[in-house]
């Protein structure tokens, strides 16, 4: 398994970024004396020849969309190369292992995947029976491997160039964007988050010198903006600030964005001015909803009033806040969904939203912490393993119908590259129509007023 092509690593989707999870694992395999071949199927198609040649095929599935695409690739690889060992690794691999192991793959790894995966390859190479902590097979049950990884600098030289990925856009200006991570896991345990059943509130800091070396390599390849992809950049605020200070000192023209919880923005507000001065272009935060009943059910750690305070704070500091939303859950109502839309319209925040977020519906993967809540039996139905989620229906059928219509709307708008402001008002029109009210999209779009020009990435966020 040491020859080039014996080990094939495939990424399916990492939010439009050059795949970090491929680069990280590739570096560790090379350090161990292997010669992995890497393919990012988001921008290149694995050939039949490459799939037939591989002895080991590792497919990265850090999120739901990646898993959906990854299973398709695994099925194709299995038909072309029945003898290959196919392993899915990442958050969604282990959560969905029962389904995936039935026919599609040979092993699944969740959590800190590098060490178990290297041990798996060594066992296969030596012809040993597979019994490795963190590696789930048809014969061996194993939970996630949650121990500190000996991190190395990600290896990106084999990956497609940054020009093939999302860019930072400010008005008509485009900048090449890189991506890295400063931590793994998350110390918070929001009930709907797929990180919770894998990490259970633990997180690990990646050494500062490793992070900076990864950034440096991407800047050398043209990156002028960096996305910090941590679930929460301020899980360790001291660690995060060390990194952005060093980044700004070495590359003062390079900007960045990060994801930070609402409660952390409020708790560590004294860090925001320096964060802006170090080059922060915008911050993403998982707002999810402005319905306190929803936020309580999800154990988000913030309230609707906290969200409003955070928006005011960020406007004052001068860092655009881009919310991610989860507006379709069993506890959202037609009225509270409309209030959510009204909030963004009345505060002139429509430019802050990627329209896809108006359509996101709660996913409940196997192992979700939501399954353990006291009232889960009242609303969670059977598992749909092929969709990687438990089924549920809203008590108000109008909400399920609205979600389907809004999802179709934003998908078509994304395909056409439609005006996001008009798309927002089309979603509002659908919402009011569900309540028997008329609404003029054209008039609302005309009357919205001057458009803000805010920094954003050119690919919308999908889960």
Summed up, the domain count is 2
| Overall body shape | globular
List segments where confidence is low: pLDDT < 50 over at least 5 consecutive residues. Answer: none
Describe the main β-sheet briefly: 7 strands, mixed
> The CATH topology of the largest domain is what?
pyruvate-formate lyase- activating enzyme
Distance between the termini: 34 Å
CATH class identity of the largest domain: Alpha Beta
The CATH superfamily label of the largest domain reads tm_1862 like domain
Judged by helices, strands and strand pairing, the structural class is alpha/beta
Number of strands: 17
Instruction: Provide the spatial order of strands within the biggest beta sheet.
Output: 14-13-12-11-8-7-17
Overall CATH architecture of the largest domain: Alpha-Beta Horseshoe
Q: How much of the residues is beta strand, in percent?
A: 15-25%
What kind of assembly state do the chains in view correspond to?
Answer: single chain
Mean pLDDT: 96
Radius of gyration: 22 Å
Count of DSSP helices?
Answer: 17
GO molecular function: catalytic activity; iron-sulfur cluster binding; metal ion binding
Cofactor: [4Fe-4S] cluster
Protein name: B12-binding domain-containing radical SAM protein
Organism: Ktedonosporobacter rubrisoli
